[in-house]
Design brief:
The chain is mostly beta strands and about 210 residues long. The chain is built from two helices and nine strands; from the N terminus they run βαββββββββα. It folds into two domains: about 1-30, no CATH class; about 35-209, no CATH class.
Length: about 210
Amino acid sequence: MYCSECKCEFEGWTGRCPNCRTPLVEGSPPVAETADEPISYEALVELVRENGGSLGIDLSASEVGKEKRRSFPYFGRGYAWTRRMQGVFNNILVDLATTEVGKEKKERFPYRGFGFAWAKAIEGNVAGNQVALTVKKVGTDRKWSFPYSGFGYAWTQEMSGQCGDELKVDLQTTDVGRLRRSGFPYLGYGLAWASKSVLTLTLNQQTLV
C-alpha cells in the first residue's frame, strides 16, 4: 500500500496515510523517471565544490516498515522505521535504503510496554555514487493513556558516513511521522519514523585545500 500524495509506501498497512490522512492505494509508488542519470564521482565532488564545499539535498521517506508485538499479559509494542528515503537535486537522484534496524523494548508498572525501532545503518547512492551511513543520534519519546496503554516512539535523528575518499556525508532528520494504535484489552502501539531528512555532502578538509 502507498500514499498517492506523499509517495510513501507502508508495507502491511491499510486505511489512511499516517502522514497526510490520504487513503492508501494498492501497489508501490511509481519510481522517479526524471532523475536517474548517474554522474562520475569527480563530477559529484566538483558540484559540491561549486556549492561552497557543502551541498544539502532534501529527502522524504518512500517506504516505511512496521511491526506489532504483544506479550503476556497486556504488553503491546509497536516498531516502525524508515526503510527507504529518496530525493532529487538538479536532476540527481538520491536513493537510500536501511540495511540494519535497531530495536529495544521496555516495560513499566503496571502493564505498559514500550517498543522502539530506528535505522542503524543505511546504504545507497547519490547519482550512482555509493554512500554508507551509521546512526549517531536516536530520538525517543514515551506516552501513556488510561488505564494501561504505553506508546513508545523512536527514530533516527542523525547519521554520518562517507561517499568515496573526498566527501563526508551527514543525515539530519527534519520531520518525524507518528502513529498511535490500541488493541484489546490494554495494548498500546506507538510507531515513529523519520519522514523527512536533509542529506549533506561536505568536502573533506584535505580536498578543500
